[in-house]
């Protein structure tokens, strides 16, 4: 058995590789999650996020490299590696004909009656108080995801691992999930989550690893990412695109104006240069019909660092497991 100390990283992944035949699903990935932080693993579909989390949970073994959780590793400590760890891969699974409370009670029994009864407390944390006696079959997808978090919290974990917790949620559900992760992090819980949405990790994560085709495309803080982000692009609709382009080329070297794939123009430049350009269009009486951000600078960077495309975000209908 390995003794763990407070100085141990919550998660320490060193040079982990996993192959499926010729495909390298995870390619020499290293990352370190400090206790108390919210860490995001970001990447498009197929980047290797779930494979990495599966290895952390011991569901599959790496071909090479090591994963330690609070100083424990699968090779030395086997299932004790998961002491203090809870979470779910893909989506949590429940009995739909039982209530939320009955599902949680069942899981508590399965985990051993030694666990303290935190049922009411965890229901409150995930904002399901008042709905606990409804059948899970009638829950929205977001409520099920939150019940999954509640099930994890029953174990009083030190580390919560969530695989794309906002996947498949509507905007309200995404907001609720983000607020929940923030609350948990504020309470001192270490959270490792995966996502393929930059805006999901941007607000809540301290550090991120961006993965692409199994490899690490970026490691660092959100502030580091912001410093690398390109100027924001804006979709411009005018009554005279030809003149709008001509004005940009002649008088605004800091602004790039290009035809947008779906019609109109995309103008890219610093905020100050773009404002001056738009003011000039107005002065020249070019009819201005729309001026809207195409995507945030961080999203733009994400698309630059990975193979993701803005319309690439497909919702998975994968088999759910707890
Ligand atoms: N059991 C498996 N057998 C063969 N290939 C697999 C297996 N599991 C994953 N892969 C492949 O490994 C790559 C990484 O998949 P993974 O599910 O880890 O990606 P992901 O980043 O989680 O993407 P998604 O958001 O689509 O789940 C993909 O190309 C996937 O097809």
TrEMBL record:
Residues 11-238 form the ABC transporter domain. InterPro entries: AAA+_ATPase, ABC_transporter-like_ATP-bd, ABC_transporter-like_CS, P-loop_NTPase. Pfam families: ABC_tran (PF00005). GO terms for molecular function: ATP binding. Signal peptide: none annotated. Keywords: ATP-binding, Nucleotide-binding, Transport. The keyword Nucleotide-binding applies. The keyword Chloroplast does not apply. PANTHER family: ABC TRANSPORTER, ATP-BINDING PROTEIN. Belongs to the ABC transporter superfamily. This is ABC transporter ATP-binding protein. The lineage of its organism: Bacteria, Bacillati, Actinomycetota, Actinomycetes, Propionibacteriales.
């Amino acid at each position: 058995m390995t003794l763990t100390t407070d100085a141990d990283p919550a998660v320490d992944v060193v040079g982990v590789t996993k192959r499926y035949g010729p495909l390298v699903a995870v390619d020499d990935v290293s990352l370190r999650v400090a206790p108390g932080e919210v860490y995001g693993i970001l990447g498009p579909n197929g980047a290797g996020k779930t494979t990495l989390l599966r290895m952390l949970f011991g569901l599959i073994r790496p071909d090479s490299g090591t994963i330690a959780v609070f100083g424990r590793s699968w090779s030395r400590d086997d299932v004790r590696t998961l002491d203090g760890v809870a979470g779910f891969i893909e989506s949590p699974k429940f009995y739909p004909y039982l209530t939320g409370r009955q599902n949680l009670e069942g899981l508590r029994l399965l985990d051993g009656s030694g666990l303290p009864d935190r049922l009411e407390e965890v229901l409150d944390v995930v904002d399901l108080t008042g709905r606990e006696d409804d059948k899970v079959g009638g829950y929205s997808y977001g409520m099920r995801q939150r019940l999954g978090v509640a099930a994890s919290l029953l174990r009083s974990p030190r580390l919560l691992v969530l695989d794309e917790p906002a996947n498949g949620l509507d905007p309200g559900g995404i907001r609720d999930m983000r607020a929940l992760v923030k609350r948990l992090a504020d309470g001192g819980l270490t959270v490792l989550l995966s996502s393929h949405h930059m805006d999901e990790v941007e607000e809540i994560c301290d550090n991120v690893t961006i993965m692409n085709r199994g490899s690490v495309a970026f490691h660092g803080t959100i502030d580091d990412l912001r410093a690398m982000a390109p100027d924001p692009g804006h979709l411009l609709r005018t009554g005279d695109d030809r003149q709008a382009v001509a004005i940009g080329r002649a008088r605004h070297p800091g602004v790039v104006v290009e035809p947008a794939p779906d019609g109109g123009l995309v103008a890219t430049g610093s905020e100050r240069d773009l404002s001056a350009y738009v003011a000039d269009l107005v002065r020249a009486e070019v009819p201005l019909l729309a001026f809207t951000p195409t995507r945030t600078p961080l999203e733009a960077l994400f698309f630059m660092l990975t193979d993701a495309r803005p319309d690439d975000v497909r919702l998975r209908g994968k088999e759910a497991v707890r």
